[in-house]
Structures are given as C-alpha cells and as structure tokens.
Amino acid sequence: MFENLTNKFEEIFSSLKKAPSLDENQVDEGLKSIRLALLEADVSLEVVKEFINRVKPKALGQEIVRSTSPGQMVVKIVYDELVSFLGDKTSDIQLNAVPPVPIMLVGLQGSGKTTTTAKLARFLEKNNKKKVMMASLDVYRPAAQEQLRLLGEQNNILTLPAIEGQVPADICRRAISAANLNGSEVILFDTAGRTQIDFQMMNEIKQIESIINPSETILVADSLTGQVAANVAKEFKNTVNLTGIVLTRSDGDGRGGAALSMKYVADVPIKFLGVGEKIENFEVFYPDRIANRLLGMGDIVSLVEKASEDLDQENLKKTEDNLKKGQFSLEDYLSQLRQMKKMGGIEGIMSFLPGVSKIKSQMDQAGVDEKIIIQNEAVILSMTKKERENPKIIDGSRKKRIASGSGTDVATINKLLKQFKMMSEMMKKMSKGNMKGMADKGIPPELFNQLK
What is the DSSP string of 122-145? Predict the structure, then answer.
C-alpha cells in the first residue's frame, strides 16, 4: 500500500538525514522533490500546494537551524503535516443514537459499496458487539440486492429481504420497521451508485437522507481513482451531510494520492480502509500509522494487532511451549509458514516494517518471494513425521524422495534445511530474550519489543 510514495520519501529523506547541516537551497531542493513525489502519487494540485506552503516556513525556521540533526527535524515536520492532512486522529463511527442507528453508504457504481456494507456490518458486530441489519436500496443494478443477500448469508449477517417493485423510499421505511421488530441496533443502507454523478442520483440520496436521518453518511471511494475520488468526495459533500469516507482497494494503491487528498478536499475523516477482497480485509484508518508507513518508518503497532487477530493462538502456544523446552521442529516451522500465509504472506508482513524499500530490494536480490512459502510448505509435507521431528536423519536418499514428492530438487531441500537451522537457532535465542541475536539476523527488534 502506497509503495511508490514511500519509496520516494525514503530516497528524499535519506540524503537529507546525511547532511550535517541544511541551508535554504538544500531545503528548497528537498521540498521540490517532495512536491514532485506527491504529484506523481496523484495527490491533487490544490493539496500539494497547501502541504508545501505549510511545511516550508517550518523547515526554514529557527528550530531547523539550531537542530543538531536538521534532516531528522525536516522528517518530523513533514510527518506532522502528513498526519494533519490525513486527519490528526482516528475518527470512530458514531453509534450514540437511539437504536436502530441508521448509517447510509453512498458512492459511484463500481467503488465497492455493497462489499463494504458487508465488511462494515461484520466489523460492527465483531468490534462493537452490535446486532446489524443490511438493506439494499439499489433497485437499478441487476442482482445488486441479491449480491447483498448472498454476502449476508455467507457471513451470517441479517439482511432485509427484497420485495420486487419497491422503490428506495419504501424500502427505507420497511427496513426501520423490521429493525424495530427484530432487535437490530444498526441498519446499514446500501444506496444505488451511478457511473457518474448526476442530478437524479443526488436527489434520490437527499430523499433517503430525509427519511432515515442517518447518524453517519459514509462515502465509499475507490482509492485507485486518485484525484477522481477526491472530486467525487467534494460533490457528495456539497449534496448531503457527509460524515466519513471508506477507501476501497487500498491494498492495490501504490500511489496514496486519494488518501492524502480526500480528507483535505471533503473536510471529513477517512474512517476505514478496504485492503482486500475478503470480508475481514477491513481496517480502521489511523492517520499517524499511515504517515509512518508513507515515510518508510513502518507500522509495528498495526502488525502486532494484525498478528493477534489473524494468528492461530493454539498453534502459537504449542510453538511457544516447544521453544521453552529448547525445541523447534520442522512441524513448528510449517506452522509458522502457514501463519505467515494467513497474515498476507511475505509482502503483507513486510509492508508494516521500517525501511520497507531496502528490505524489499535485499529480498529481490536474494530471490525471495511468495512462492518460497508455498514451496517450503510442499517440501515439509513430503517428509515423514519422524523427519519433521528430527531433520538430522534426512540423508541423501531421503532428500531424493522428498524432492520427488514435492516436485522440487535436492538443492531446494538443502536450502530449506539450512533456512530451518538458522531459524531454529534464532527462535531459541528469541525464547531466551536475546534481542541482540535477533538484530544480528536482520530482524527488527521493535517488532519483538512490541510482542514481549
């Protein structure tokens, strides 16, 4: 996520940090590079100008001149302004109203509104412990109501049954009545989208707004559309009482322009990010954490939270118990590979680590990619239980058999066994709390500090 912009920022700040002191020309050159990076990331020109106008006087101020580390000071100024543009703090969804609390989702067709409705419903049920009902108001797009019904059925979320021929206003009234009867605490209204903003669409949304009086009106926007998403936000803001934004397809957005532009342009907070197709691929938007990631500082807090949600606690406990006994088998290694897959694979984890562009460059040079997880899993599954428990017995003939069973070669088996040996030593050091040993292996100590 936001990979291109992160790489650019890392390059710019790398040279600034090395300078023992900074003069006005160096700051100007740095700001020119930042301006270009933001424009290339599809941040709107209006936002870029305002951002540079805010950063420049601070970057040329007395605090920089007196600073013992001027490069770090510039990074801090840019970081603070990024957080300010992204929204200063997390904005919770407003549920403090008499139930059933109505929430309206709006946006253009194809922005991921229906899927986001289901994701938000699951989030509210899991994290806020609310009983949620979904209602589709899209009577125009073929199978739109059926799509929401299926998402509800697949994820055990209550959905208002569709009645053919009903108009959106009538569906709204029926949904409120049904929610009062079935005890739903929140109703999510999935409104119809259009291929472009038009008068009829906006009139319908205004009518729905007047009927349901929503606690939140959330714009669902595709982050891949960049400046277009920001313009759409402005149009909706001018029409309805917009209270928040969900950015979808953020996992595929290497630029980051939409995230940086939308809060400033629409003057409403970004509340959530859609980061994948699965219903659980839905994250709270933390401005400070996103700013950290944009500047290549990583986001260890989110990584730890993600780990606690995604990982199988039973398997982790089993591995932990083995480590305490000084044991780490290929069975434990296999379990770790599978846990890594659950967390989004190598790239999924790496995106949260500091200095991600350098790590990725080193991995590319070493030929490390997602296929290695799948390949190593196949190799370990081709071993007997005895071999997994005691890899030392794996001789030449066993290696040939394992290679044949996993569709690899003996060189791959040797490489895995070498990796396992290194991992085994590292895990034993970790169990003893030897953080220096972890750092020597290139593992960020910050990650393990958070997990201690």
Answer: HHHHHHS---EEEEE---SSTTHH
Instruction: Read off the tokens for 314.
Output: 């039973």
State the CB neighbour count (10 A cutoff) for residue 396: 8
β-bridge partners, 314: none
pLDDT of residue 432: 56
CA dihedral 394, 400, 404, 408 (to 10 degrees): 80
pLDDT bracket for residue 447 (50, 70, 90): very low
Residue-range domains of the chain with CATH: 3-86 (1.20.120.140), 101-286 (3.40.50.300), 302-451 (1.10.260.30)
Contacts of 76 (CB under 8 A, 6+ apart): none
Q: Tokens 């899927």 correspond to what residue?
A: 115
Asked if 189 and 137 touch (Cβ cutoff 8 Å), the reply is yes
User: 3-class SS at 357?
Assistant: helix
Residue 172 pLDDT > 60: yes
Alpha-carbon span 286 to 263, nearest angstrom: 13
> pLDDT per residue over 320-348, tens digit each?
565 555 566 787 777 777 666 665 555 55
User: HSE on the CB side for 28, CA within 13 Å?
Assistant: 3
Q: Between residues 360 and 386, which one has the greater pLDDT?
A: 386
Write down the pLDDT at residue 150: 95
The order of strands in the sheet holding 132-136 is: 158-159, 132-136, 186-190, 101-106, 216-222, 244-248, 270-274, 282-284
